[in-house]
Design brief:
Oligomer: single chain
CATH class of the domain at 124-253: Alpha Beta
Largest sheet: 5 strands, mixed
Number of helices: 12
CATH topology of the domain at 124-253: Lambda Exonuclease, Chain A
Structural class: alpha+beta
Strand content: 15-25%
Radius of gyration: 22 Å
Distance between the termini: 59 Å
C-alpha cells in the first residue's frame, strides 16, 4: 500500500512514536478503555499517561529485539562519569553533543538487553522468526466500514515473505501458558490482536496469523504462543463491541460510568471465598 499520501487505508514506515501519537486515528490501548466503561475512555483520552523509566526500558528492549540497527541509531548508553569534576563535565558535554536527539538509557540496562539477545539466541524458533524479513512498528491507518471510525495500529513486527505474520512481543513475570492466559484476559491482548489483524486486512488484503513472543522479565525465558480460533473469535467480538459502543457514545455525546442510574447494587462474596472452612482453608469436595 502506498504510504506517501493521506488516503485510507495506508501504511507508513519509519514514523517516530511522537508522529504516530499525533496522527489521526483511535489506537487499541485507548479503544479498550471503553470496554471498561465509556467514562474510562474519556478519562484516558483526556489524561494520557506520562512515560515512566519502566516504559522507557520496555521501549529500549523492544527496539533492541525487533530493530537492532534502529536501536543503535535511536538509543545511547549513559556513560559512568563524575559530573562533579571538570573532566566529568567535559565528558558529559561531549556525550550529549554526540548523541543529540537520542533516547538515553542507563548503563545497567545494557546488561538486560544483552541477556534478552542471548535468550533469543537460545530459542531456535524465536530467532528464526526475528530473522525473517519484516517491518517493526509499521503504522497502519484505516476506516472501519461499519462504524465509520478512523483507526490506527502499530504492530510490534509484521513479518512477510511469503505471507504476513503478526508478531507481538510481550513481557511478563511468568511466561508459562497458565499465567500468560490470565494476562491475555486482564490486558485484553486478544482485542488488540483483533484490531491489528483488521488493519492488516484493510491495508494489505490479508488475514494474517499471529504469534505472541512472551519474554519472562527476570529469567528472560521465551515462550511462543499461537492464538487459537476461540481466542481470535472472542477478540474480534470484543473489538466489534468496543467500536459499536464508541460510535454510539460519540453520536449521543454520552459517556456513562459503572452505575449511570445511581442505583445501589447488592454485592456478595465470590464463590471461591464462600467455599472455605471456618479456619480459612478451602472446603473439600
Amino acid at each position: 500500500m502506498d504510504d506517501s499520501t493521506d488516503s485510507l487505508p495506508r501504511s507508513v514506515a519509519g514514523q517516530s512514536p511522537a508522529e504516530y501519537a499525533d496522527a489521526e486515528g483511535i489506537r487499541s490501548s485507548l479503544l479498550k478503555q471503553i470496554l471498561i466503561t465509556p467514562a474510562h475512555y474519556q478519562f484516558a483520552l483526556q489524561h494520557p499517561k506520562e512515560t515512566t523509566p519502566a516504559m522507557s526500558l520496555g521501549t529500549a528492549l523492544h527496539a533492541a529485539l525487533l530493530e537492532p540497527a534502529a536501536f543503535e541509531a535511536a538509543f545511547a548508553v549513559v556513560p559512568k562519569v563524575d559530573r562533579r569534576t571538570r573532566d566529568g563535565k567535559d565528558q558529559w558535554l561531549a556525550f550529549q553533543t554526540a548523541n543529540a536527539g537520542k533516547t538515553l538509557i542507563p548503563a545497567a540496562d545494557i546488561e538486560m538487553i544483552e541477556r534478552l539477545r542471548a535468550a533469543v539466541g537460545r530459542h531456535a524458533r524465536a530467532r528464526a522468526l526475528l530473522e525473517r524479513p519484516g517491518l517493526a512498528e509499521l503504522s497502519l491507518y484505516w476506516t472501519d466500514a461499519d462504524s465509520g471510525l478512523r483507526l490506527k495500529a502499530r504492530p510490534d513486527r509484521l513479518l512477510h515473505e511469503p505471507r504476513h505474520i503478526l508478531l507481538e512481543v510481550k513481557s511478563t513475570t511468568r511466561a508459562d501458558v497458565i499465567h500468560f492466559q490470565r494476562r491475555i484476559v486482564e490486558f485484553e491482548y486478544h482485542v488488540s490482536l483483533a484490531m491489528y489483524r483488521d488493519g492488516i486486512r484493510a491495508v494489505f488484503g490479508e488475514t494474517a496469523p499471529a504469534v505472541f513472543m512472551v519474554v519472562e522479565a527476570e529469567t528472560f525465558e521465551i515462550c511462543l504462543y499461537e492464538p487459537d480460533a476461540t481466542m481470535l473469535r472472542e477478540g474480534e467480538r470484543r473489538f466489534r463491541q468496543a467500536l459499536i459502543t464508541l460510535a454510539r457514545c460519540l453520536e449521543n455525546d454520552h459517556w456513562p460510568g459503572y452505575q449511570p442510574d445511581g442505583v445501589i447494587e447488592p454485592i456478595s462474596l465470590p464463590a471461591w471465598a464462600r467455599n472455605r472452612t471456618t479456619d480459612g482453608t478451602p472446603t473439600e469436595y
